[in-house]
Design a protein that fits this description.
Number of helices of chain A: 14
Number of strands of chain A: 13
Shape of chain A: globular
Mean pLDDT of chain A: 95
Helix content of chain A: 40-55%
Strand order of the largest sheet of chain A: 2-8-7-6-5-3-4
Largest sheet of chain A: 7 strands, mixed
Low-confidence stretches of chain A: none
Distance between the termini of chain A: 50 Å
Oligomer: homodimer
Amino acid sequence: MLKDIALPHIAGLAVYEPGRPIEEVARELRLRPETIIKLASNENPLGPSPKAVTAMRRALATTHLYPDGGGFYLRQGLAKHLGMRPENIVLGNGSNEIIELLFHAFVAPGDPVVYAERSFAVYALCARLFQAQPVVVPAKDHTHDLDAMLAAINGRTKLVFIANPNNPTGTRVPNEALDRFLSRVPARTIVAIDEAYYEFLDDPPQTLRHIQRGMPNLIAMRTFSKIAGLAGLRIGYGVAGAEMTGLLNKVRQPFNVNAIAQAGALAALGDRAHIERTRRLNRQGLKYLGGEFRKMKLEFIPSEANFICVRVGGGAEVFGALQRRGVIVRPMGGYAMPEWVRVTAGTMPENRRFIRELRRLA
Amino acid sequence: MLKDIALPHIAGLAVYEPGRPIEEVARELRLRPETIIKLASNENPLGPSPKAVTAMRRALATTHLYPDGGGFYLRQGLAKHLGMRPENIVLGNGSNEIIELLFHAFVAPGDPVVYAERSFAVYALCARLFQAQPVVVPAKDHTHDLDAMLAAINGRTKLVFIANPNNPTGTRVPNEALDRFLSRVPARTIVAIDEAYYEFLDDPPQTLRHIQRGMPNLIAMRTFSKIAGLAGLRIGYGVAGAEMTGLLNKVRQPFNVNAIAQAGALAALGDRAHIERTRRLNRQGLKYLGGEFRKMKLEFIPSEANFICVRVGGGAEVFGALQRRGVIVRPMGGYAMPEWVRVTAGTMPENRRFIRELRRLA
């Protein structure tokens, strides 16, 4: 049996159960695919940045060539965009990969890794994969409890994750609280701030300032999957001091980020119009959804991201019933919130359709 | 210092030095980019499969959606193409990632991992990253010495890599020798056969037969980077028994393969014309290059892949001199072959230009 050859901790890992393609769901439920709306993965309802699509179309002709393993042009573009230097940027096959690189570089079996209850699932996945000791800190009001997280860090803690805004709750930590946390965290603990939804914030924290001022143990992780609408391409990045990016570059594969993604991401950086349209639509969607939840007397968590959690009673049942009506949302049972579903703010017609179907279930 | 926090073996890893974009080389050497030819990375000189380009163009409109994490359609297509079942296929961000997944699943620090001298560099990279004990078996006539590799395997050996055809030498092992090796290898050692250049072989080994017959510890690794011309997309796969693919699926990231790559790869599978054109051109190129090397009285290694190694005297010097003339090849010093360069078989005009410039150096 192969499992006797595999490393002992591998057998215990959950096999990831991928969501089936919309076409498959459609076939099973006898729905036409174009009648199904997916508000389950916090994707950009406006689609990819049109500038990115143009750049990617042009790049298709040279997909026989290996990508630029150093991400030369994209790192230059990001550096200019962020007011950093190219050596402050490390590119990943999605920001998921940056998380994995941090474990490769810093975490030995048994090392404590701190993260919040009800935050991004990949922290826990990687902790198990690398045999870290997960230290899961309870949330307070659906938000990271930074004081409790600081208290959970000891001299052996290698890594702490802060998702801000947090997925799946959509909450944020106050900027002052984050600054205070960063000023107190031990120098021997790597602080990874996951800012996948950063661009949706109206009053974002100045995370990169801490890096510019020379904090070597801080990394901010961002992505082109959300505001830029490039989730299918798998491209994210870390911003950190040059010593940190140097270490992460040692543990990544030479050609980890594909060429089309690099071309699309670079063009998306300059697509202010798409970013602004996305922000505007998202604000409108969250406002509408919150208003409707209030009318329906449903508890919800005010969101700073592009999705919103609502307490519907039986999350799994409501998820199933909505799916049969062609509306895919995310049940929150896996996050110990069995009464909740998470819904992405879609286009306004999508948001209205979701509310209509939800009302029918009541 | 961060390096005191990083795991001790990380500091010793070499930072990967990426090749600079052609545009940068052009600027430095004051050459026009379109006058530079790159015969350094075994890319397809005919470009990507046109059918793949058409499919990828169509897929660009939905890059805001996450890829199908299960690779449903591509695994179905591959299964049909290979005469296997979808559960026999695991997809990777390039076949490089399949190599990394094997280490994640099977290799603990100190475990012996066997591979041949002068074979694909990523085996050694991963062995160091995962703190394996590398057991490097000398080559015989530039070819894997399978008897010596078998003898190097002991009861603790977790993993053995066989690159067939081998990169960078272009040699293959005889089919009978491979069958014999597979019949003798211990059941507790995972055998990874790297078949990145498999489709260039005229008389390929029937590797998948062994899997069909139930050999659980065998995995064949293939790629869309070479014959299909999709190196920029990063997509490769492993073919193995369902128990093996199940383990590897546990250690991969949920969305490791991008959506454009999945669409392009599926279309490329059906592009027989592009595959045949590529094979024909490659045969013609290898024949031409070999003939010219003979005329020039240069030793070369007869190749079964899409590149060829030639002994030019000072490999690094010839590489530098050719690059100044706008022809990029690969020096072999890193493989302890300092007198050699490796050149990809290009289009016939590219091959002739390479020979012309090489003759000028003589």
